[in-house]
Amino acid sequence: MESARKLAVTLLLRTFEEGGYSHLLLRQMLAGSGLSPQDKGLCTLLYQGTAARMLTLRYIVSLYSKRQPEKLDAPVRYILYTGLYQLLYCDRIPDSAAVNESVKLTGQFRVKSAAGFVNHVLRQFLRDGKQYPVTADRWHAGMLQYSVPEELLRQVVTERGWAFADPFFSDSLLPAPCTVRLNTLRASVQDIAGLHPQACRTAGCYQVETSDITGTQAFRKGLLHVQDEASQLCCALLGAKPGETVLDVCAAPGGKSFTIAEQMQDRGQVYAFDIHPQRAELIRKGAERLGLRCIKAGVQDAAEWRADMPRADRILCDVPCSGLGVIRRKPEIRYKPLQTFQELPALQYRILETASQYLKPGGVLVYSTCTILKAEDEAVVERFLTAHPDLTAEKMCLFPDEAHRCDGFFAARIRRRV
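Request: output the structure for the sequence above.
Response:
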């Protein structure tokens, strides 16, 4: 059986060398690891924390290595990163354990020849008081403080200002809370008391204490589903009512559809679509677990118009996006070059354009993303409204805000004139 530290390094290799998705890899590999709950927690901490702080840790290694970190054997690189992460950010782990266990890992990953090098870097960092020099350049200093590329930092500060960027990027370095939506059709908060729920500002939203929500009795009984508060706020903005017809055009894995159905008291119709059959099946199974009968899951490309689609009172258009608003949950996204996302606004506009054609007169459409870039948010909505004078934006929101320390989301509530 692998140790927690070895599994954390393995996960980093799978994520950054093989292009895996952090949240999926972590769930899959922990499930088959045989680790104790305590060791699963340690693995999660080291994996997610190291992944989030990668640029800072890389910079520190570069100060002590004659070779650039990218030139080191990949296992050596991530062993050093996890070792430095423990020294810098894990007060409960003794420095000696962080160093000694990192040296041991070189043998486990068959890079034993690097044991002396790993030992030297970590011990020299300790002798230097765990301090590293920071330049006077505000952008380079910000890169090290938040562990985000200078390009991304500059873009967000230019568009949103430091008052938004500082708390957002600071929060992105902290462990993401487990946030759930209570299934009010089946349960009250007393029914999940064992999870020590803490109420969020949004009705029905709670932070709970568990390392494996899907393994809890409350989850298996359909008393709740996992959903960040920002996502729940998008559903609140839609304002669906019992008896209405609602379309969720990019619905998988289904959290927003479930919340909408619960807000409708499971009366009416919620058509929830995804382009991939296996993801549409996730929606169907989730609705079945929660006992929600008004949800009809199906396969559909949201960018392609269908004549047989029902006309809707309300439409949720939660489009594919860069995902930069959820980097505290998927840290690998923060390192992607911004040019990677250049083609997304065109797709987002096509989906919004197509979805709007199903909206009844007087109906409400919510366009939402889990990103904070204006090119994917306000710019798409403004272009759309210019082309459609029969529609008007009633409200635009950017999260997190002063009231909600949640994931980064944008949402615009749009109404078709009667």
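DSSP finds 16 helices and eleven strands in the chain.
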